Amino acid sequence: MQAWIWFAAAVVLSIAEMLGGEFVLLMLGGGALAGALTALVTDQLWIQLLVFALVSVALVVGARPPLLRRLHKTPQLRSGMDAVIGSQATVISTVDAGGGQVKIGGEVWSAIGVDGHRPLPPGTPVTVVEVRGATAVVIWGQ
Q: 81-140, what's its fold?
């Protein structure tokens, strides 16, 4: 009978968590579930309460902070020039240290190669490593 009470408490706490969203009641629900499993093994209430308390504290201290970080993590949206850096492109006209053109995401960009690298012929896959004004600096490879 005690196991059913602990199990009911775990369900109620987990449902109540939906109202708050801070993961405290969910962690207490996890402790109550551990109490229910303990009640299946022993009838000693003090052992069940001890297991409930230890598991609840462990979940609040150990599992809650990573869950909150994951929940409140803001997506890293890259826009403008930051979105171009690291993207893949294809050479349209030979790119060397003096200039050339590449196609980045369907758009044609002026491009230059990294100093000291060989010229890149049309059709070569390249990676954008920097943007200088309206010119993409590219290197060979993906």
A: OB fold (Dihydrolipoamide Acetyltransferase, E2P) (2.40.50)
